[in-house]
Amino acid sequence: MDDVRGSGKELGASVESNEVETLEKGGVVDITSGAAEERPDGVEEKNTTEGEVKTSAAVQPGPPSRSSKWKKRILSFLDDQWFLICMAFAIVLASQKQVPESRQKVKSTVISYLCVSIIFFATGCTLDTRVLVRNYSRWKAHLWVQGQCFLMCSALMFGVVSATATNKDFMDPGLLVGLMVLSCVPTTMASNVVMTGQAKGNQELTVVQTTIGNFISAFVTPALVVMYISVPTWYNAVLPSHGNDQWTEIYRRVLKQLGLSIYIPLVVGQVVRYFFQPACNTFFRTWKMGKISSVCMLIIIWSTYDQAFASKAFGTVPSSNLVFLVFILLAMWAVYFSISFLASLIWFSKKDVIAITYCVAAKGPAAGVPLSATIFAGISLELESKIQVPIVIYQALQVAFGSLLIVVFRRWIEKEEQMRLEHSVLDTEAGRNERTTVMSNETA
């Protein structure tokens, strides 16, 4: 018996020493057979039933090929920028074939009501009512964002338009009026919410601000447009003269347009969400049908360009005007973006700053195009198209350059979150060390 015990101890010691030696080499120990077996890292052992032979195989996936990397990058780019690509395709399509001019009014009316209604119905179905109620109480943020969006933007644009209009022979008057109308329209909804979320900003605040902006635009936008086009300038002379009775008619048309296409669909969407929230979440989020709003936005943009090409609006505008228009719109977007960003840093958190910046700098064609058509009802299709051209060009610029800044903002937020996490870990370790010291002193 002593010999058995001794041999058992020797075997255990041998196994233990083999384990230690094998672990020091970086291998894996297998003591199921009573001896140490060294296996290289990465080898997976497969449990087998009795009577089967145990097998192991090292499965190491090879590095991805260069073609697969490029394929992944291309797919990621298409997923991020699909709206911009489709918008370019819609513009090209509108330039090649147009709806007959006799049916342009019917087409514009149907699209302005139907597509805008779908956009805001989908928005109502996806908005969390509790989130809206919680953020609606932030009245200081509302005044700050809407004041910049309507008052600051229109005042700065009026200065630029006035400076440009000093040369009567350079810029088309319809485009100058369109620049003023653009500065008075509310912020956009779909692209703002998406870009704010991708940049890790306060998406809830963006939703509330875009909703408020589009709601009050029925009253604010016509008032601002009337104020600016009432200034006796040579470019405002292309518009028909209006009396007080006609401005009352303008507000009646605007409230009818926005009531039927924005307010009622938004309320109906909230009611549908209240009673069928799981179905709404499944339809718009799980099935990714939230892109319906973006598709409707593309249809609105196509319709605007289709009308512009059908009425020969681009043919009557010098190419120098269009080039100048693009540079002016890009410069104004950068000015709006920079002012709102730098000024908001003083009073708001970083996530709020991102949301505010996207809201202030953006202008929405979903409300801007129908508003411009409603305010200036009765003018020629050519002049109406010229007024709407700055709105749709600005839409392309704000989406393109706003998307480029998503990565910058995301890194900005992630850096702050990483620093906050490191400070939290240090505070936790300091507290643990302090408790250990106190316990040691009490024991002593």
TrEMBL record:
Q: Which domain of life is it from?
A: Eukaryota
Indicate whether Transmembrane appears among the record's keywords: yes
| InterPro entries linked | Na+/solute_symporter_sf, Put_Na-Bile_cotransptr
Pfam families documented for this protein = SBF_like
Keywords per UniProt: Membrane, Transmembrane, Transmembrane helix
- One Gene Ontology CC term in the entry: plasma membrane
Q: Where is the composition biased (Basic and acidic residues)?
A: 36-53
Which stretches are transmembrane? 74-95, 110-131, 143-163, 175-194, 215-235, 255-276, 288-305, 325-348, 355-379, 391-413
Region: Disordered, residue numbers: 1-68
- This one is known as Solute carrier RCH1
| Biological source species | Pseudocercospora fuligena
